[in-house]
Amino acid sequence: MTAGRADIGVHAREQTSLWGLFPMVVVQLALFVVPIAIMFVYSFWTTQNYQVIREWTLANYLVFFESWTYPSVLFRTLWMSAVITIATLCFAYPFAYWIARYTQRWQKILLGAVVLSFWTSGLLRAYAWMALLGHGGIINKGLMQIGVIDEPLTFLLYNPFPVILVMTYFSLPFAAITIFASLEKMDWALVDAAADLGANPVRTFWFVTLPQTIPGVISAAILTFVPLMGMFFVPLLVGNPSSAMIAPLIANLMQAFQLGLGAAMSFIVAVVVMIIIVVAWRYIRLERP
Amino acid sequence: MNDALHARARSSSAAADPAIELRQVRKVFGESVALDEISLDIERGEFFSLLGPSGCGKSTTLNLIGGFEAPSSGDVRIEGRSVAETPPYERPVNTVFQSYALFPHMTVAENVEFGLRMKGIARAERQAAASEMLRMVSLEGYETRRPAQLSGGQRQRVALARALVNHPSVLLLDEPLGALDLKLRKQMQIELTRLQRQVGITFVYVTHDQEEAMAMSDRIGVMNRGRLLQVGTPSEIYDRPTHRFVMEFIGAANSFEGRLERQADGIGAIDVDGVGRLRGLISGNIGERARAALLVRPEKVRLKFDGRPAGNGEIEGAISHVSRLGFITHYTVRLDGGQDVLSYRLADSTEGDAGALDEGRRVVLSWKEEDARIFRSDEES
Known about the structure:
heterodimer; A: MetI-like fold; 2 domains; two-stranded antiparallel ribbon; 13 helices; 76% helix; disordered N terminus; B: alpha+beta; Rossmann fold; CATH 2.40.50.140; 20 strands; 25% helix
C-alpha cells in the first residue's frame, strides 16, 4: 500500500522534472539533430559546376569506399587520435592524481590554471607552438646557440610529432579535469586497505585506484578522442600536408563545393564516433553495478 | 582461558617478545600533540582494547601500528622487530577499517582473496582459504556478491574475513561495530570474541564504547587527550581506576569536591559544604588540604529510608526522581545542599522497604569508605 503510494509520488515527480529537459531538447534539436539530418540529406545528393543536384544517389558513399585514399585517411585519423588520446591520458592522470591527493590549499589555484588555457583561442595557441617549434623557433635557435645542434631540427614541425604534441596539449585540460573529478570522489581508505593487505604502491594503483576511476578515464578518453576526430586547424598548421587527417580533408572538399562527398564523409565520421561512444558507455555501465 | 592464552604464547616462535611494543611514542600534528609519550606492551593472543573519547589518540595509535602514520619520536615494535622503516604493505598486521573499505569493484571472494593474491598464492589455494574464512564468519554462498549487495553487518564480516585470511600477527580493528545498530552490535561483540579465541590472533580493538570494551577485552588501555592513563583488565579498570577520568568515563560516578584531610590506611576525608565529611580511598599523590574530588559509583551508594544519619559518612536527602529500568532502578537523591546523587538498586532488593522509596521520600545515603575514591581535582585528564 505504502509502496504503491510512493510509486505514484515518483511518477508525478518524474513528469514535472521532464519539463526541465525542455530547453536542452530544443538546443539539441536545433544544433545537433537538424544539422546532422541536413548533412545526411546532402550526403545523398551530388554537385556539379557549383550546383547542387537534388537526386538521390549512393554515389558519394561509393566514391569514399571505392577509393583507397579516403578510408586510409580515416584510419590514419583514428590511429592518430588514439595515440594522442593515450598520450593525453598518460599526462593527465598523474597530474590529476597529484592535484587530488597532494595539494590542499593550492588545489583550486591549480585547477584554475588548467582552465585558464581555455581563455585564449586555440588558433593563437597553435601559432604560438609554431613559433616555438619552427626552423627559426625558440627551441632550434636556443639549441644552436648553446651548440647542441648545428642545423635546425626538422622533426619539430610538419610531421606527426608536432601534431601529437600540440593536440595532446590541447586535450590535456579536458582530460585532467574529468579524471580529477573521478579521483575526487574516490574513497582513499581503499588505498590504505590495499596497502594493509600487502599491495605495494604500483599494485595498489593497478588493482584499486585505476579500476575505481576507470569511468572517469573512459569519459576523459571520449572527451579527448571525439574532438580530435574533428580537429582541422592543428594538422593543417603543424602537420605534414601529405599525411592529411579527415577533418582538413572534409574542409577542403567543402571549400571545393564537393558538398555531397564532404557530407558523406562527415556522416561516416559521425557514425564511427557514435559507435565508439556507445561501446564506451556500455563499458562504463557494466563497470557500475 | 588464561591457560589457553599461555599455551598459544608458548607455541609461537619468539614467545618472549610481546606482539606489540610502543616505546615513548609521540605523535605531533603541526602544533597539536596527538600522542604524548605512550608506552605499552600488548601480549600475544590477547584481546586488547584502546578506549577513549573521540580525539583521544586511540585511532592515531592504531595508525602507527598499521603503518599509516609515522611516530614523531619513539619506537613501534611488532613481535620484537622495530617497524619504523617498514611500510604498511610489509607489516605482519591487517586492519578492519571503520568504513570497512571493501573494494566495490570486486566480489566478496575477490576481496577476501586480495591479501593472498598479493602474496602470490596460487588461485586454487587462495579460493579454498577464502571459502574457509567466509564459512567461519557465516557468509558461505556469498562469494560472487558485490559489497554493494550486502547489509552493513555482512560487509563487516567480509572486512573481518579479508583481514583474518592472511593470518596476521596482529589484527587491528578501528571501531568496526560503530556503524551497526545496537542489536547487531551486541551479537557481533559475542561473535568477535568467539572468533578471536578460535584463531588465537592478537586483536587490538579501538572503541569509544566502554561497555563494548568491557564486554570483549582481556585488557583495556584507557586514553584521554593523547595520554594512556591506565592499562588493566576490565575489572581492574572499573574497580580500581587510577584517574578521575577513567572512573567517570567507564561507568557512572557521583562526585563531590572539597579539601583533603589524610587519615590512616590510605583513607582520606573531604569536607563538602552543606553535605558533611565524606571518606574514600586516596588515589595518587595529593597534598594535605589540596583540592580533591571524591567519586563513588551509584551501585555502591546504599539507600535507607528509616532513621537519621549517624554522622559516620552518612548523608541525608530526598528522592527527586525514580526511573525503573526493569531489573534495576535508578534513584536520584537531592541532598539538602542542592547536589544530586545517583543510587542504583536491583529491583528485587530486599534491603529497606523498596516499595516506599518514592519521589519526595527522605532517605539516608552511605557507602563503604573503600568503595569511594579520592582523586586530585585539578587533575588534567
